[in-house]
Amino acid sequence: PLPDDEKTLYGQFPKTFKWSTASAAYQIEGSWRAHGKGLSIWDKFAHTPLRVSNSDNADIACDSYNKIDKDVEVLKRLKVSHYRFSVSWPRVLPDGTNNHINEAGLNYYHRLLDALEAANIQPQVTLYHWDLPLALQKVGGWENETIVHRFRDYADVLFSRLGSRVKFWITLNEPYIVANLGYGYGTFAPGIVGKQYIAAHNLIKAHAEAWHLYNDKYRATQGGLISITINSDWVEPRSPYKQEDVDAAKRYLQVDRCKHQKSFPLPEFTPEEIKRINGTHDYFGFNHYTTVLSFPVDLGNQGTGTTHDRTWIESGSFWLKITPFGFRKILKFIKDEYGNPPVYVTENGISERGAVDLNDIHRTHYYENYINQALKAHVLDGVDLRGYTAWSLMDNFEWAAGYSERFGLFFVNRSNPTLPRIPKNSASRYASIITCNAHLL
Ligand code: GBH
Q1: Distance between alpha carbon 90 and the CA centroid of its chain, in Å?
Q2: pLDDT in tens, 39-74
């Protein structure tokens, strides 16, 4: 018989399983200067020459700011129980502080929540998906410790204004990427180099303060869940017979791997800060896409270099290969390493590039196989998996890759000014998977 990882598991998730799809404000909303919105670091970055492929920007993006009905219509077709979106901080607080609340901006989210409620779709709201108010970057952004309080104040506005209708909050999306690409390599906004550890330090503290605020001031009356979403690839040693590759794989998955990094100063948390940060999570929010192979390197990247196996099927993104086996393994790793927490997969998906083909068999293949591995993690390995989220609802602004890489279940025809959302074949397949709770037919 085939080993577990090569055959399909026939089974189902519990009835309470949360099926979702996701987006992020800067990637879909557009209306970058509408109704009092402030600028974000991505508005500036995308308007800087040579930062984004084809000089794309998200001034219009999918025009979701003006297309609530269209977005909710396609969500209904997917039969999702939940929709994950993010709030644009500078749309709500144009200068980043709560000195001035932009009611028109907040109103957009009220109307979106109304439409979701009418469609019986529950919101999952991310406070920060990378679009920092530019005004805060002018005083150092995530490098400046005062951002911890600015983020807490912003969270306070959202909890008090939207919290009666939102039962699932995500403070930060992928702080590792914010720190490493935004403040380390500088390939994402704000394009700063060599400051990743201080940025990471403040990101973690900001998250913890938002969690405590919710816990102390809002949980009793609002009763939602709040946590952080982190991303990780699974890793295998490039050669399983080389101890140095095996060691590099271990370092890759360990939090303390930055101790192997010698070229930057490492800020440390005080014992009080550690106490304050520990336990600030109601669930384990997790974004996952692919697997890498590890080997040792002397400098940079925490002493681990990564590559891919040339037999792995490619996608539209060079970093993303189709490796469903790694999904089950990393979910099991999370269970073992972190004491079997409730896990919500808050992103998982695949891209294509080039000519449009609505018959996206690579995406259907990806979702069927990854979701089946998640089912195995749940049924066979006992991972406490509570929800799954497909990235993404529709093709959108893919950060430094612009519109050249498309992750959507729906194709957005950018040559038609009405930006219609057109289902790819994978959209109906995802709807069937949801309807039978992952039981493959
Ligand atoms: C997610 O990050 C993001 O949360 C989401 O907004 C995004 O659309 C989605 O990925 C798809 O990319 O080209 O060398 O700069 C997943 C982690 C971080 C993986 C950035 C790709 C870019 C590598 N991603 N990374 S590079």
Answers
A1: 19
A2: 999 999 999 999 999 999 999 999 999 999 999 999
Q: What is the pTM of this model?
A: 0.97
Chain position carrying tokens 């869940």: 225
Q: To the nearest 10°, the Cα dihedral for 113, 119, 122, 123?
A: -30
Out of 229, 306, 319, mutate this one to test ligand 1's pocket (max ligand atoms within 8 Å of CB): namely 319
Residue 381 three-state SS: coil
Phi, psi angle pair for 54, to nearest 5° = 55, 20
Q: Write down the residue that tokens 């990471």 correspond to.
A: 200
pLDDT at 272 over 90: yes
Nearest atom (ligand 1) to Cα of 399: 8
- Determine the distance separating the centroid of ligand 1 and the alpha carbon of 33, expressed in angstroms: 25
Nearest by Cα to 430 from 438, 420, 422: 438
To the query of whether residue 347 is one of the catalytic residues in this protein, the response is: yes
Under the phi-then-psi rule, with left for phi > 0, alpha for psi from -120 to 50, and beta for the rest, what region is 50?
Answer: left
The span from the CA of 408 to the CA of 391, in Å, is 7
- pLDDT tens, position by position, 350-369: 999 999 999 999 999 999 99
